[in-house]
Please model this.
Amino acid sequence: MRQAGRYLPEYCAVRAKHDFLTLCKTPELAAEVSIQPVELIDVDACIIFSDILVVPEAMGMELVMEEGNGGPRFPHPLRSRADIDALKVPDPNRELKFVMEALRLTRKQLNGRVPLIGFAGSPWTLATYMVEGKGSRSFRHIKELIYNNPKDAHALLEKLARSVASYLNAQIEAGAQAIQIFDTWGGILPQEEFREFSLRSINLVIQLLRRNNVPVILFCKDCGHSLEAIADLRPDVVSLDWTVDIGRARDMVGSYVALQGNMDPALLYASPERIRTAVQKILEKFGKGSGHIFNLGHGILPDVPVEHAKAFVQAVKNESPKYHR
Amino acid sequence: MRQAGRYLPEYCAVRAKHDFLTLCKTPELAAEVSIQPVELIDVDACIIFSDILVVPEAMGMELVMEEGNGGPRFPHPLRSRADIDALKVPDPNRELKFVMEALRLTRKQLNGRVPLIGFAGSPWTLATYMVEGKGSRSFRHIKELIYNNPKDAHALLEKLARSVASYLNAQIEAGAQAIQIFDTWGGILPQEEFREFSLRSINLVIQLLRRNNVPVILFCKDCGHSLEAIADLRPDVVSLDWTVDIGRARDMVGSYVALQGNMDPALLYASPERIRTAVQKILEKFGKGSGHIFNLGHGILPDVPVEHAKAFVQAVKNESPKYHR
Model:
């Protein structure tokens, strides 16, 4: 999950001098902020600093990051079959070379301390941003597309799946030691449409990966209703948000995938004592044995006190050995 | 679910002359916009036009509705035990008299054409707004409250449960023929906290109701993971959002509660033909027999073409009789 961010004064210091996309596109800066959480809060893996929307940008879409609360925006969202057909499947070692360089540099600077994780957005999640153009509450345009023109939607999703797969394969070649696929928006769909539009295209990504023993982590937010269908795609790890009971999830799919998660990220606003209790409860729910990567159920939130993030990592390190021996 | 709104030109015409809270607080205007969907799109029940946040306002909080995209806002959110203790349990026939008058007037103007539904927000949902003060993505403040000070949270939720129950009892006395409890924010919680902070206080509301054969509908958005716990509170009807499979829900709890729902509201952006197919699929999933109130899985969205809303209602009326005979 996202580890770097505004809760770290050291991140804010870098960010004060450069805008968000410059950070993503300058390997030295991306490496610097990627490694900050490893050094500052002592996490035992490093996730590369980047943004899922660099892929649509590499496919030919103009991407704008608005400062303040605006967030990312595509000023020319996809609204027709012609828009979809005009997108290209990028060569990740050309259009997304800055990510590969950031990975190589980060890997070098980590120097074996902890493993490095690469990532990408799921085809469905990228499509949602590309068709809506900006944040949405109703998701009107992407839903019009799937309900009225499912063929066009599948054309877009297949193109995205091929782009995402080649991007992740390039990340593996560049040194990523695990990769995570983020499906942020699968949860806005009814279950059948989630399978048809999100899982089907994630399946294509996974089929196209040259995994070479690099574990694949799949995170579908707000999709606890389809845990078995998600695990059936056979990632190595299924990542759980905090609305899923990890004990029940283990009973359902724990015999064939590992589980990652799943503490409510907002618990880092609570006291260190309360954080420790919450860590213990999740460990207890998962139970004894291997196959659990302890994590938050989503990225770390802004304004979390750094001391609380440290207390969280420390609590996991202190409490978990007795469960996983 | 919310039926009146910006998709209706007739609603926009009234709204152009009065702000949102004036509509809520002027019984003649509230009755007028409540009845519009009955006359314009031919729905077979009428839900009173109001807002869940009139209850916190009646408890003593200043409520501001910002025009544009701002939405409702409490300029002085609850941030301490003293803030919570300062809230009063309102007398609904005094501080919320305008709702009772709107119900009486609407009931009179409906003149038996269709039944009239009253509603309230769940204690947890109201607490979330009252503590955050405005929209939130992290829900930092309400989560700090429950994780750090659960006793204070329960004090607030109990006061809210008593306020909501007396408000709903007054609505029943004023002529509401069914009531719905909306838990919009239960889904931001882990399952255990959902039971402890949301369901427990909804249970108190239901226990305090003088139901007098008035059906109670309970809608917990994004809480499909806890369907059995929701049904165990014994409302008459459990309302489902569109991420739940209504066939499986019927198998689980359909023998002791009726089900309402659960079409994706965004389907009203699709073509009338596509809407009809979606209606058929949901009817097919629920299957034959009684105990299904066909509805959207949430309120009607802005910008839905009126013709599509009409086509939806017509499709339900045409297609459902063969299932429910």
User: Anything to note?
Assistant: The interface with chain A takes residues 138-140, 143-144, 147-148, 187, 189-191, 193, 222, 224-225, 242-245, 264-267, 269-271, 274, 278, 301-303 of chain B (CB under 8 Å). The mean pLDDT of chain B is 96. The beta strands of chain B are 46-47, 64-66, 71-73, 116-121, 178-183, 216-220, 237-239, 258-263, 292-296.
